[in-house]
């Protein structure tokens, strides 16, 4: 998100401990060292997902030479970017390690704010893009800019289609076959159900738009290495197909009442209000619902939980394979860290197979490597077909544009495509392309 940020939905038993750790991290960042005279403190800025596990690995990956202190970033991906960018632009030496939404990597690397990943690890990541390494291809591609590796994938996120099996069956929809957006909109409408998406004016909406465009065989922009001179292509037929899906849902009985302000958290509730919903959302959903069995707003009991189904992300165009969103978190080392070698060492430790497995089993945040996936699959904590769906969706998904100007691109699209009810296939894609070109050329302001 961004992999876009998600609302924390389960209990937060470690909040007090995490808050204390954040305060301690701040104190350590202001002082020369923490944890003992002469001992260095490395500051690790983390996003809100999986904070308790991050704290565990900050402790276990600390050494006799340094302690790792955790600082929690804001919940919004936009605010995360702003806070990190301000520190890095000021050449803040205390920004040693940071959790990066994949779309931050190109911008930060292009600005000279990230240290290059050491050669041996970089070669492992680059070989994975060619299919010869352990990292999932989709995850490995997120950390490369200008043929150089600037971060290490920690967890790789993707979206799948979650649904009530009983709703799909009542609508006569065969979920063993690929389904299209129009099919699930029609199925939900016919049975009084709904379709859950992320359509507030934020990064999550751009994730949906991008996946629809990619699924129609197009892209928002091309030739992104050209920076402001990139080719804006959202005004194409693929953009029109994407707009048709958004318009269709917005005008259908399947649209949820809060469509224009919906996010990853708001769309969870309708699943267990009969007859249920079809919903696109990230990998955390399974563990979230599993933890809500018997609770208010969750599945009534284990039998009800078994009515939860999952399938590949819906196709934009019938007969064309969908391109599921790719998100997650990459670990970068700040270019101005006073201890880059130790920070690089710590980055390898906190992205280890063990750490990735813990994030998956405890927080529902799936791995970036095949080795970790194998351990998750053999744990019995997830249905095997769901684990394989996650892995395949990351490897065959459609990433958001890799551009040093991604924040500008995202904001321009949000301006033109929101609210969903205003989207018109005959005008919105072309008008947004014209506006985005003008913004990149400096002729329009956001």
UniProtKB/TrEMBL annotation:
Keywords: Signal, Transport. This is Extracellular solute-binding protein. Pfam families: SBP_bac_1 (PF01547). InterPro entries: Bact_solute-bd_prot1, SBP. Residues 1-32 form the signal peptide. It comes from the Bacteria. The keyword Transmembrane helix does not apply. Belongs to the bacterial solute-binding protein 1 family.
């Amino acid at each position: 998100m961004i992999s876009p940020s998600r609302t924390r939905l389960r209990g937060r038993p470690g909040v007090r401990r995490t808050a204390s750790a954040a305060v301690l991290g701040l104190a350590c960042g202001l002082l020369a060292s923490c944890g003992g005279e002469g001992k260095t403190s490395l500051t690790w800025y983390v996003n809100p997902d999986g904070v308790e596990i991050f704290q565990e690995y900050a402790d276990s990956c600390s050494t006799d030479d340094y302690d790792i202190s955790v600082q929690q970033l804001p919940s919004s991906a936009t605010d995360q970017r702003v806070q990190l960018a301000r520190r890095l632009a000021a050449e803040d030496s205390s920004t040693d390690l940071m959790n990066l939404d994949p779309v931050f990597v190109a911008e930060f690397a292009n600005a000279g704010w990230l240290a290059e990943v050491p050669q041996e690890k970089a070669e492992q990541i680059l070989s994975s893009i060619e299919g010869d390494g352990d990292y999932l291809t989709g995850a490995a591609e997120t950390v490369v800019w200008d043929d150089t590796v600037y971060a290490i994938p920690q967890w790789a996120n993707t979206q799948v289609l979650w649904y009530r099996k009983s709703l799909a069956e009542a609508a006569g929809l065969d979920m063993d076959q690929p389904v299209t957006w129009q099919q699930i909109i029609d199925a939900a409408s016919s049975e009084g159900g709904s379709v859950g998406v992320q359509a507030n004016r934020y990064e999550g909406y751009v994730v949906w738009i991008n996946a629809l465009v990619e699924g129609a065989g197009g892209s928002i922009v091309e030739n992104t290495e050209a920076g402001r001179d990139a080719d804006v292509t959202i005004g194409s037929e693929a953009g029109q197909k994407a707009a048709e899906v958004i318009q269709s849902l917005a005008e259908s009985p399947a649209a949820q009442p809060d469509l224009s302000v919906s996010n990853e958290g708001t769309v969870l509730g309708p699943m267990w209000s009969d007859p249920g919903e079809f919903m696109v959302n990230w990998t955390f959903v399974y563990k979230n619902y599993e933890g809500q069995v018997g609770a208010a707003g969750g599945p009534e009991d284990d039998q009800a939980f078994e009515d939860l189904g999952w399938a590949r992300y819906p196709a934009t165009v019938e007969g064309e394979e969908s391109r599921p969103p790719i998100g997650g978190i990459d670990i970068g080392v700040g270019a101005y860290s006073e201890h880059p070698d130790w920070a690089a060492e710590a980055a390898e430790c906190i992205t280890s197979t063990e750490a990735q497995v813990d994030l998956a089993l405890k927080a529902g945040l799936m791995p970036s490597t095949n080795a970790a996936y194998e351990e998750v699959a053999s744990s019995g904590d997830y249905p095997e077909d769901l684990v394989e769906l996650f892995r395949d969706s990351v490897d065959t998904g459609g990433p958001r544009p890799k551009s040093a100007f991604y924040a500008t691109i995202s904001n321009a699209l949000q301006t033109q495509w929101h609210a969903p009810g205003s989207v018109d296939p005959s005008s919105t894609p072309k008008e947004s392309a014209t506006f985005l070109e003008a913004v990149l050329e400096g002729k329009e302001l956001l």
